[in-house]
Amino acid sequence: MQCSRCQGLLIAVQMKDMGQPVVAGWRCLLCGAMTDPGIEANRASHDLPIRNRARVPGSPVMRLGKGGMR
Ligand SMILES: [Zn+2]
Questions:
Q1: Does the pTM exceed 0.70?
Q2: Which of 9, 38, 61, 70 is 20 to 30 A away from residue 54, measured at CA?
Q3: How far apart are CA 70 and CA 6, in angstroms?
Q4: For residues 23 and 26, what is the distance between their CA atoms, to the nearest angstrom?
Q5: Ligand 1 centroid vs 39 CA: distance in angstroms?
């Protein structure tokens, strides 16, 4: 899968928003753009800019797993 902005390599990630279940998504290794099914759906109907939360080093995405957040 390729980034829609820079054609860079996308890697599979798991994203978690507050109060929402973990969703599978994609992150670009080059520009850091995040994509998930929800964003793709939004993009299809609107032309929303991509949120760039993922640019922060040590992204919370990496804390998922067996941490037991509940
Ligand atoms: Zn990119």
A1: no
A2: 70
A3: 37
A4: 10
A5: 15
CA of 10 to the centre of ligand 1 (A): 7
Tokens read off for 37:
């099914």
Tens-place pLDDT, residues 11-36: 999 887 788 788 888 999 999 998 87
Give pLDDT tens digits for 26-66.
Answer: 999 999 998 876 666 777 776 656 666 666 666 566 666 67
Tokens encoding 43? 């993009």
Tokens linked to 29: 């290794």
- The residue ranges of every structural domain in the chain are 10-55
Following DSSP, what letter does each residue of 16-63 receive, concatenated? --TTS--EEEEEETTT--EE-HHHHHHHHHS-PPPP-GGGSSS-GGGG
Ligand 1 centroid – CA 68 distance (Å): 31
